[in-house]
Amino acid sequence: MGIVFGGLVWILIASSLVPIPLIQGWVMFVSVFCFVATTSLMVMYIFGTHGGETSWITLDAAYHCVAALFYLSASVLEALATITMYDGFTYKQYHENISAVVFAYVVTLLYVIHAVFSLIRWKSS
């Protein structure tokens, strides 16, 4: 689910107009990095390249904690940029930014949930 919503955030940020380019760059970096890294980890797990080693459990827990923090920072910054939109922006652009913020928070929640379960699995291993 995180991959789908993460891809949606990526698309919405790429198509939206953010008043502060530095914020848009950070949100794009976070969404693309997490999308690619999550997809890579999923493919490696599907093909069994982890070999059942406990280091992969540590990697999974660490990655999802970092991804949750990255997405939290990106969500807050995107919300701040959307709030500060002034004249010169259309209603459609404002709604695209609101959609990006909502889905960024959904992805943040999904990464936090996965991080919690990964940390529980890491602690029990």
From TrEMBL:
Q: What is its main location?
A: membrane
- Its recorded name reads Myelin and lymphocyte protein
Q: Which UniProt keywords apply?
A: Lipoprotein, Membrane, Transmembrane, Transmembrane helix
Q: Which domain of life is it from?
A: Eukaryota
The family database entries (PANTHER family) matched by this protein are listed as:
MARVEL-CONTAINING POTENTIAL LIPID RAFT-ASSOCIATED PROTEIN, MYELIN AND LYMPHOCYTE PROTEIN
Compartments (UniProt record):
Membrane
InterPro entries, per database record: MAL, Marvel, MARVEL-CKLF_proteins
Keyword Cell cycle attached: no
- Domain MARVEL, residue spans: 1-123
State the organism's lineage: Eukaryota, Metazoa, Chordata, Craniata, Vertebrata
Membrane topology summary = Multi-pass membrane protein
Q: Name one GO molecular function term.
A: structural constituent of myelin sheath
Q: Which family does it belong to?
A: Belongs to the MAL family.
> Which Gene Ontology terms describe the biological processes this protein takes part in?
myelination
Q: Which Pfam families match?
A: MARVEL (PF01284)
Annotated Gene Ontology cellular component terms:
membrane
